[in-house]
From TrEMBL:
Pfam families: TetR_C_3, TetR_N. GO terms for molecular function: DNA-binding transcription factor activity; transcription cis-regulatory region binding. Residues 32-51 bind DNA. InterPro entries: Homeodomain-like_sf, HTH-type_TetR-like_transc_reg, HTH_TetR, Tet_transcr_reg_TetR-rel_C_sf, Tscrpt_reg_YcdC_C. Signal peptide: none annotated. PROSITE patterns: HTH_TETR_2. One of its GO terms (biological process) is negative regulation of DNA-templated transcription. Residues 9-69 form the HTH tetR-type domain. Keywords: DNA-binding. This is TetR family transcriptional regulator. SUPFAM superfamilies: Homeodomain-like (SSF46689), Tetracyclin repressor-like, C-terminal domain (SSF48498).
């Protein structure tokens, strides 16, 4: 029984990994069960034993990804130093883009299609978390501990400036001569946000 459970776990992980590869490259419509089964080293009937449809694989990936994507925002400590907490948030988001580039592109593709599979989570769990983080940031602004800025747009800016490195990997490599897209990104974003967030440095 233990061996069977181990094999089932291995096969499930192989299917999700192959699905991630297919969906991040071709999107939901372009990916096929045949390609996913082949990538997982399984027959199509065997794949369907674990997941009844392509949509089931896709949904499982998105649910897992959303949990990973929300973790850095959840880690924001309301009682910590505002500057360091926000710089840590930027660093964690950049690390996610570096370590999970396929997942980032999968998420971006889903959103570009109107988020048909995760809109409920975006309007629910994600919105609630952004609202909570924004209230924390707004308190820091009101206390004069960081520059006067819009908390929600600050969060959007972090997303844009970190996930870009994964979602536009090909473009960055083309411009930089196929070097590591993340080379120098961390120090650059640290300096950028440190200056942007500094009290008294705003233009409001």
């Amino acid at each position: 029984m233990t061996a069977e459970t181990r094999i089932q776990k291995k096969n499930r992980e192989a299917i999700l990994d192959a699905g991630l590869e297919a969906f991040s490259e071709a999107g939901f419509r372009g990916a096929t069960l045949d390609r996913i089964a082949s990538g997982a080293g399984l027959s199509k009937p065997n794949l369907l034993y674990y997941f009844p449809s392509k949509e089931a694989i896709y949904t499982a990936l998105l649910e897992e990804l959303l949990s990973i994507w929300l973790a850095p925002l959840q880690a924001l400590d309301p009682e910590g130093d505002p500057m360091e907490e926000l710089l840590l948030y930027v660093d964690r988001k950049l690390a996610l883009s570096r370590d999970y580039p396929r997942e980032s592109r999968l998420f971006a593709n889903e959103v570009l299609q109107g988020a048909p599979h995760i809109l409920g989570a975006l309007e629910g769990e994600l919105r609630d978390m952004v609202d909570h983080a924004s209230s924390v940031i707004q308190r820091w602004v009101s206390e004069g501990r960081i520059a006067a800025l819009d908390p929600t747009h600050l969060i959007f800016s972090v997303w844009a400036l970190t996930q870009h490195y994964a979602d536009f990997d090909v473009q960055i490599r083309a411009v930089r001569g196929n070097t590591d897209p993340f080379d120098g990104a961390g120090p650059h974003l640290d300096l950028l946000f440190r200056r942007f967030l500094a009290p008294g440095g705003d233009t409001a």
